[in-house]
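Hey, quick one: can you model this chain's 3D structure?
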Amino acid sequence: MIKVITTLKRKPGMTTDEFRAYYEDHHRVIGEKYLAGFASRYLRRYLNTVPDASGIHHEPEFDVLLEMWFDDDVSFQSCIEKLNEPAVAEEIAIDEEKLFDRLTKRSYIVEEHESSMRA
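Sure thing. Here's the predicted structure for all 119 residues.
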């Protein structure tokens, strides 16, 4: 299993509600179109702030954790090739410009280590 996590920040001036609505109503559909047949899961984990010790809600560094899961390296590499096709990359970039602060976008391949929490 290969998991890729991307942190994404909304475009300045866009509210959290506008961001989430646009992502789910528009950008998600583009993701599904190009991830279908390659990714086994496509998740968006939206962040809601928790107040600090003084009760202040701070602006998060990013608004959503995007997760893409691939069953194997062949699926992952094939997806990367598809996403890098010029027409595909252009369609994604044009829509990302409407939604994200693209300069803050970061992606990571995740290596997981899970603890057993049995008593």
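One thing worth noting: The longest strand covers residues 39-46.
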